[in-house]
């Protein structure tokens, strides 16, 4: 993965506006050894405390909007790639603020849920391409999953640049923008669904007499092993499940209980609610 980026791309000077949970995960990937990105990366946060926590000598310059109202404009000046990592409802104000300081040819990547590329493009001068991306927090470990879609004026090269960027932190799927909200529902938010499962499994294990530490080890190693098996196996998930579920065995009994609330419609409803929220954020 990294090898092909090194062969094909030298990522340009990069700025990130807003570097919290998601931006921080991307930043970890971008500053990992072997990534051919022009350093330092300039990042901005709202608070000085967050900026201090992000600054790394030689590789990350961090500016805070609360102490320097011109921080975002300063960060994007001279950058060829700008990542917008602020909350959806702040995107348009941030773009209005930085628009005049973006050089022609800059690629602007927004990871914001719901906010359309068209609404960002409307605030930009000609010559700035927008790419929407929907990453997830395992990007922190280089195990991310990101969907990307080019806006109206994004060229194949602009999309390739965004693809290279997110390849540094995991797998990338190119989709149409109409699919980005569904990507958010599946893989963007997906880690939270698994963490919810982990919370409940750990609590249930504790109620059966394990210590918190024991329960966490049991659950996290089971999730890690199962996810790795899923990723490496040619078998479908249903077959992997059957491999665990001995006829008339113990798993079968538990799955009968779990399937009492049919998971198909449940997941359909959960993903539909997720997409509906993205649609609400479009107007943010
Ligand atoms: N979290 C996730 O798993 C995912 C999030 N996203 C998207 O990523 C975006 C960020 O979400 P998330 O990382 O969770 O949010 P966070 O609240 O963790 O991070 C937001 C960041 O924006 C900074 N910020 C706020 N206002 C400004 C400003 N005016 N100028 C510069 N920086 C500012 C914050 O600074 P400070 O720390 O000082 O408050 C913080 O660093 C959202 O649009 C979300 O839809 C997409 C996919 C997955
Ligand atoms: O919850 C959110 O809005 C963001 C988008 C996908 C994951 N987190």
Automatic annotation (TrEMBL):
InterPro entries tied to this protein: 6-PGluconate_DH-like_C_sf (IPR008927), NAD(P)-bd_dom_sf (IPR036291), P5C_Rdtase_cat_N (IPR028939), P5CR-like_CS (IPR053790), P5CR_dimer (IPR029036), Pyrroline-COOH_reductase (IPR000304)
Membrane spanning stretches: none
Enzyme class: oxidoreductase
Subcellular location per the Swiss-Prot or TrEMBL entry: Cytoplasm
EC number in record: 1.5.1.2
Keyword tags: Amino-acid biosynthesis, Cytoplasm, NADP, Oxidoreductase, Proline biosynthesis
Pathway field: Amino-acid biosynthesis; L-proline biosynthesis; L-proline from L-glutamate 5-semialdehyde: step 1/1
Domain of life where this protein originates: Bacteria
Primary location recorded for the protein, binned into one broad class: cytoplasm
Presence of keyword Oxidoreductase: yes
This protein's record includes keyword Lyase: no
Record domain Pyrroline-5-carboxylate reductase catalytic N-terminal: where: 15-114
Recorded catalytic activity of this chain's protein: L-proline + NADP(+) = (S)-1-pyrroline-5-carboxylate + NADPH + 2 H(+); L-proline + NAD(+) = (S)-1-pyrroline-5-carboxylate + NADH + 2 H(+)
Coiled coil: none
Residues that hold NADPH according to the record: 72
Record GO terms (molecular function): pyrroline-5-carboxylate reductase activity
Residues engaged in binding NADP(+): 17-22, 45
GO terms for cellular component: cytoplasm
Record GO biological process: L-proline biosynthetic process
Domain (Pyrroline-5-carboxylate reductase dimerisation): residue spans on this chain: 177-281
Family stated for the protein in its record: Belongs to the pyrroline-5-carboxylate reductase family.
HAMAP family documented for this protein: P5C_reductase
Annotated function: Catalyzes the reduction of 1-pyrroline-5-carboxylate (PCA) to L-proline.
Protein known as: Pyrroline-5-carboxylate reductase
UniProt organism field: Leucobacter exalbidus
